[in-house]
Amino acid sequence: MTRSPNGELRTCVYHPPLKNNYKTIQDAFLSDEMEVIRQEMRDGKRRPECEWCYFYDDSNQYSCRQDINERYEEPPSTKLRELDFAASNKCNFICVTCDESASSGWEKRNKEFRFVDSDILHKLPIELSDINNLKQITIMGGEPTIDPYYTDDFWDLIESKTDENVWFQMVTNCSAFPSDRWMKFLSKLKNVCIGISLDGIGEVGEFCRLGWKERVWRKIFIQWLEFFSDRTYDVTSRHEGPWINFVLSNYNILNVTKTLEYIEKFNMRNRVMLTTAFEPNYLCPAYLPNKFKENIRKSKFYDNNHKEFVLDVLNKGEYSETTYEKFQQYTKYLNTFVKVPKECLHFV
């Protein structure tokens, strides 16, 4: 089960939210809604709600589906084994591909000047006391390291529901390091995976993830590398160690090579996950005018994996005049808050 930053419950971070309200995580997991999803998967139905994973699989990238299937050898059973949890949308960044559902910064900005209508509601965290024997827990955000919800009491609860074999994952923007109590819990675990966001370097990075500072990111990133340097883990494994996630958009697609060159200074290119912003679609390069797509195809690629992924994204959609106009309007909107760098204006 997944508890999104705004309180919506889903089967994974990419899946549409469940429609009904539930008091506990277990109630949601054992609901009729979830059983329909499970049965469709048992029947081998290609579900439109799962297109994210199909696309990443076909593009030779790493999908959520692959991640889960690789970690389980036991027969499927209707037991709650994995929990992706976000306490709130508390975040110190305002990223161009995000919105107020996962960013308190965006929520505050929208009160001043909103670009699109939204009916996002924020719910209090759901009851967790009925969970037991978790095999995996993922902490998401917002930015979890600055969320006051994660107190010593929270980690005492999680510790009582897990053992050293639980697989732990966290998603962070690398602007702050977790508390001592948090790290004490992680230090006892055999398997820890930390997903670190990075959507560009230089002015591109500062614009795409407003609040990002290279000096701070590097400092916290090195702290994570030091944490893992004291641990024994398989560097070829997808399920352990630090990972870097890059979200491709119209603003940073020509900055990927520079970013990968920067990351390679840490010998981390093989631990980069390339993803893309299919939603909102006006940020996705798939809908750009063909002349811009051709410029992208002729650009410098870091390696074949990078090139193949970008080409797959470009082929995912057709130019839409309406969508492109929305992208131009969004760029003007962002420019009212912070000047858009020239490096991010190749396609405007």
Q: What this model shows, in words?
A:
The structure is a single chain. 36% of the residues lie in helices and 12% in strands. The protein has 348 residues and is of the alpha/beta class. It has one domain (89-135, 147-344). Strands 2-1-3-5-6-7-9-10 form an eight-stranded mixed beta sheet. Strands 4-8 form a two-stranded antiparallel ribbon. The longest helix has 16 residues, at 214-229. It is globular, with a radius of gyration of 20 Å. The model has no long low-confidence stretch (mean pLDDT 92).
Distance between the termini: 40 Å
- Work out the strand percent: 5-15%
Q: What oligomeric state do these chains adopt? A: single chain
Query: What's the shape?
Result: globular
Describe the structure using short key phrases:
12% strand, eight-stranded mixed sheet, globular, 348 residues, alpha/beta
